[in-house]
Amino acid sequence: MSEVNRSERVGGWTRFVTARPRLALLAALVITALAVFAGSGVADRMGSGGWEAPDAESTWTTRVLEREFPASQPNLLLLVDSGDVPVDDPEVAAEAVRLTERLSAEPGITGVGSYWQTKSPALRSSDGREAIVAARITGDEKGAGEILDRIAPDYQGVHGPVEISVGGPVAVRHEMQSIIQEDLLRAELIALPVTLVLLVMVFGSAVAALLPLGVGIVAILGTNAVLRGITEFTDVSVFAQNLTTALGLGLAIDYALFIVRRFREELSAGADPRAAIGTTLRTAGRTVLFSALTVAVSLAAMMVFPQYFLRSFAYAGIAVVLLAAAAALILLPAALMLLGPRVNALDLRRLPRRRRATPAAGPDASPDAPEDSGRGWARLSVLVMRRAPVFAVVTTVGLVLLGLPFLGVKFGTADDRQLPATAESRIVQEHIREGFPGSPGGGLEVLAEGAASPGRYADFKERIEALPGVRQVNGPVTGDGFAYYDVLPEGEPVGEQAQDLVRELRAEPAPFDTSVTGTAAVLVDSKDAIADRLPWAVGIIVVVTLLLVFLLTGSVLIPLQAVVLNALSLTAMFGAVVWVFQDGNLSGILSFTSTGDIETTLPVLMFCVAFGLSMDYGVFLLSRIKEEYDRTGDHEHAVTFGLRRTGGLITAAAVILAVVMVAIGTSRVTNTKMLGLGIALAVLMDAMVVRSLLVPAVMKLMGRVTWWAPAPLRAFHRRFGLSEGESAPTAGQDAEERPGVTGRERDKITAGA
């Protein structure tokens, strides 16, 4: 593609987005209003599970047991507290039997059983003051939640001599979903005003500060509508709404910051609004496009995993990234066209600037004028490159040390301890876990398929009992062509010993087909599914990232450097996740209960999200470095120039995104807290350490070889690559941007700026 054609294409896009700005904004307002309507009630259609692999042995076995032996898979537990008298007291027993019979008659309830019917010791607490009524609510997550909402108020509370509390997996999931929705609303109420204040501090102008916030709101509302549509076809996790809010605000603000900042630079250089928008779209607009593609690819990689928990974040992430980029590249230029110089209106920093004004920088100078921006970042860049080996080694070693705790990671499953200590369903589960023998609900179920004689069933039971790590075997319970054994493992229900027992049970020869499910079996299958698909996900992210960064820079080495440095930026996050959430450090301050492990899917999710956000900032920095290098051919000056022009912008964007993620991290659900706080740490480390120290140090050490590419790839990039170097310098550029200034003179100007 020729340079002329490129220019015509960009010019055509500028004309398109600025031709009817009022009509474009009116259409956006109508579409946003429709999105509010279409996306209403989306949270009620989402699920709170999705950690299990749908095609795994444990998932299939659970479905069969639910169908053939519903009593074997109770998801509703009523904890009956008899107070100071034993649960075998006649008055207590009579009331409990009445409640059990009443529960059996409820529509949508099956497999009802209780201690008073079976006299099973596992259903009575060790002190004899509590016992369990177990049942199964039929249907999917949404239907089960509706049934629970209908019946729970009739059973909770005091009934004659007993007090009833509602628990079980359905209650845990339902309460988790409700808490997440409440916490998300609180996070938005925290994040929006704080974000607005920070944007005003960055831009000075209240008008300019409102633009990124508007782009973010459009992206969030649009994504909710998209997710509402997706729930018609597949399961979507309620946790994905947190990512929608975080990325909707964070990325939209990033993109809008970059575009508004460049537009104001062009205005301050003397360009009229239409020309300023043209240059902005030709430069910052392309960077936004590349950034959106890299983030979307990182999130899309989660589509390779079978768990709908991970796939949900891909749905939400791709939608919100594309909508944020579209709003930034279509609606924002239309708004800027209407505003023109008024984008600097309501400048809250005007008075302080007047007091500091000098003859060279008049009182009306824009806060984004070239002569006023990036002085500290320029000095930092010069300092880092002067001591490049020291900064490169010290920073790399420090990041690696911060990540060392992750070597001791232990993977587990999410349970009721994700909830706050005051949640009723968690209280019920804790009473059962700590006060009942055999830890009901923590066992393994072995399904036998095919008819067999009683002798063969008994023989297989003896072989199970002989396996290491088996505490007790109950059963078999027989049915029409199926039977199952209830196996209680020793130690923790999902500990390493229980996981080893799952593998032993699956390997044990039997005279009939067998399969295993239970909490530990679900964990084993989930870990295997992630391990099987993880290389594909990482491969997709790395290969596409390498290609996109090559198209942006034309260099073979810069994409490799970007991938390696991005990975380093995540080490602190992974180390902190283990040190804090697995090992329990700071659990009192952060108000969570450590389970001694990390939910299996969380590190995958955090890697994909944090890697994409790191590339977001990396593209911002590299694009300005590339633009200046193309114009001057001076490598060190280009690095200094790039950091000077984007250092403050990247840091501001990272701080704003970190504020949003910390607001998400105030959630009372531990996994959401871990996601929010972990990604906030990763974003800050990337912006303040990797982009500010490690990137300039590495680029200094590599020198001009940084830009090397073999001749065939250079030709490919000249034809297909895109960069920010296509705009001609404007008349208002400062000394360090003028082609006639030598590299040494530019360095002196930059260092003294």
Compose a concise summary of this entry:
By secondary structure, this protein is α+β, with helices and mostly antiparallel strands. The protein is built from 26 helices and eleven strands. It is found in: Cell membrane.
How does this model look, in words?
This protein has 753 residues and is α+β, with helices and mostly antiparallel strands. 64% of the residues lie in helices and 8% in strands. It has 26 helices and eleven strands. It has helices at 3-19, 21-39, 57-68, 90-104, 115-118, 141-155, 169-203, 206-230, 240-268, 273-300, 308-339, 350-356, 375-386, 388-403, 424-435, 454-465, 496-507, 519-553, 557-569, 571-582, 587-590, 602-632, 635-665, 670-702, 711-720, 743-752; strands at 76-81, 109-114, 130-137, 157-159, 162-167, 411-412, 444-449, 470-478, 482-489, 513-518, 598-599. A five-stranded antiparallel sheet has the order 2-3-1-5-4, with helices on both faces. It has a four-stranded antiparallel sheet with strand order 8-9-7-10, with helices on both faces. A hairpin with a 3-residue loop joins strand 8 (470-478) and strand 9. The protein is elongated. The protein starts with a helix and ends with a helix. The model is unreliable at 1-10, 355-372 and 724-753 (pLDDT under 50). Residues 735-753 have a biased composition (Basic and acidic residues). It is found in: Cell membrane. It holds the Pfam family MMPL.
